[in-house]
């Protein structure tokens, strides 16, 4: 059974051999405390960028994000916090722009 991308609205499947799929970052329990904190920070950044309330930490073990959501096509390591691919950012399935005021009162403000 093919795996689907976890991004809302993305229809990429593992049957497409031109696209790579990546697991969510794991937090290694036997790592040093500062490394564990960085791993946890990256995992939370991935969850926050997906904006999916239905995800729980137990569900992410089986979910994947496809390469279409990373600028370089693959995620960065947990050490590279300044890398734009530290968490998925492209084609996230939601609009990032701010809303436009529609009522006359709001336009004046």
Automatic annotation (TrEMBL):
GO terms for molecular function: DNA binding; zinc ion binding. Keywords: DNA-binding, Metal-binding, Zinc, Zinc-finger. Residues 1-91 form the THAP-type domain. InterPro entries: THAP_Znf. It holds the Pfam family THAP. Transmembrane segments: none annotated. This is THAP-type domain-containing protein. It comes from Acyrthosiphon pisum (Pea aphid).
